[in-house]
Amino acid sequence: MGTRSLTLIKNENGDTICNMYRQYDGYPSGHGAELAAFLQTGELVNGFGTEPTFAFNGMGCLAASLVKHFKDGIGNIYLEPPDARDCGEEYIYTVYLKDGKICLKVEAGAMTAFGLPGTKQENMNTLFDDDINHFTVVTCELAEKQQPQPPNDFLDEQKKADD
């Protein structure tokens, strides 16, 4: 059974421009660590010319580079509509800009089975929300252990319907 995740990329205006679904290894020590390592290697620039070795010319360029980096064959990585949720995701990673810096928010929901919906995003626990350079797996794992288990909204709704 896979640990599913969504990675949302928001542009400078805060609009979601990319929603990347990962079918397995979506937990912080898997996808979170890989995502952070990728984002930490690049620098955000405005235009071309004196860019560092690896740069993102805005958030659209970052989103395209991210998909290219993670997609290495059939399966596992898919693109979903920007507002798609309830893909069975247990984690949502949101990449956004704050004060010109690339930031990452990591949210965790209830465990799901076979891609069934789980926790609505507004009910997920926030494990990390800061500059990408401050991300650590240990911080996320500790936050996840210290917070109460988020609800499985899908199962709760099914139970109410059955009652």
How would you sum up this structure in a few lines?
The protein is α/β, with parallel strands linked by helices and about 160 residues long.
What report would you give on this structure?
The protein is α/β, with parallel strands linked by helices. It has one domain. The chain is 28% helix and 29% strand. It has four helices and eight strands; from the N terminus they run ββαββαββββαα. It has a six-stranded mixed β-sheet with strand order 5-2-1-6-7-8. A two-stranded parallel ribbon has the order 3-4. A hairpin with a 2-residue loop joins strand 6 and strand 7. Helix 1 packs antiparallel against helix 3. The radius of gyration is 16 Å and the shape is globular.
Q: Return the structural class.
A: alpha/beta
What are the segments in which pLDDT stays under 50 over at least 5 consecutive residues? none
Rg over CA atoms, rounded to whole Å, is 16 Å
- β-strand percent reads 25-35%
Strand order of the largest sheet: 5-2-1-6-7-8
Mean pLDDT: 92
The secondary-structure element order is EEHEEHEEEEHH
Helices, by number, come to 4
What's the number of domains? 1
How many strands? 8
**CA-based shape:** globular
Largest sheet composition:
6 strands, mixed
Distance between the termini: 29 Å
Helicity, as a percent range:
25-40%
